[in-house]
Amino acid sequence: MEAHELEKLLAKVGGKYKLVTLYQKRMRELQRGLPRLVETDSTNLWDIVSKEIFDNKVDLIMGVEAEQMRKEIAQRETEELAEAEAKGKLPKPAEAKAETH
């Protein structure tokens, strides 16, 4: 990555710490199988995440805002699970395990 591209990323994200943290978290998501948010022929995670940041597809959320988002996601998942239980559509244990890897 060229110096001017790195400077643009630093300015966009708000500093070195946030940029490194964002790269680390997003790369881990991609390694776990989450889909790419941009179209690219590259298989290099660094390139993929860089393009996602440049295209405003990912952002680092921290502090109170991140905690609120985690609570909302947990609440939504709890509601979805309760709804699935009510409809008798819970996944079999083997299916649920396969999805987490």
Please tell me about this protein's structure.
The protein is mainly alpha-helical. It has 2 domains: 1-60, no CATH class; 61-101, no CATH class. Helix content is 69%, strand content 0%. It has 5 helices and no strands. The chain has helices spanning 3-13, 16-31, 45-54, 63-87, 93-100. The longest helix is centred in the C-terminal third of the chain and has 25 residues, at 63-87. It is elongated, with a radius of gyration of 18 Å.
Determine the N-to-C terminus distance: 32 Å
Largest sheet: none
Q: Give the strand content.
A: under 5%
Multimeric status of the protein: single chain
Describe this protein with a few key phrases:
101 residues, disordered C terminus, mainly alpha, 2 domains
How would you sum up this structure in a few lines?
It is built from five helices and no strands.
